[in-house]
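Appendix B, Record 12. Input sequence as logged:
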Amino acid sequence: MNTIKKIVWLIVIIFITYIVLIFVKPNIANKIADIIWTRDFNQSVLDIKSKLDDASTNIPSKEDIEKAYSWAKDTISDIKWSIEDLRQKADELEDTYDKAKDFIDDTSVKLKDAKDIIDNINQ
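Logged structural output:
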């Protein structure tokens, strides 16, 4: 059991050393990567490092944050107005539907009455 622990720790140490090598000497790490087929892994680690570097150095200014906030607030206001407009149009459409339904129902009743009158005349 002791030998297995030593082997596991040796693998962990080699892995950590390899990751540090990617940061410190990427050219050497790429040569090793060509041998052990891990170039994509190296590139992934370097991409993550680059994104973290960008995030730590490209912090937006207060003005940029205020502009983004103002834009978001205006956009939300426009969306609220659009929702209210859609709600109003939906209500108008519902009223139109109700009026059309009432008209059709009324016309159906009148047609039935007319049919009854014609049937009574023909008898």
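Residues 62-122 form the longest helix (61 residues).
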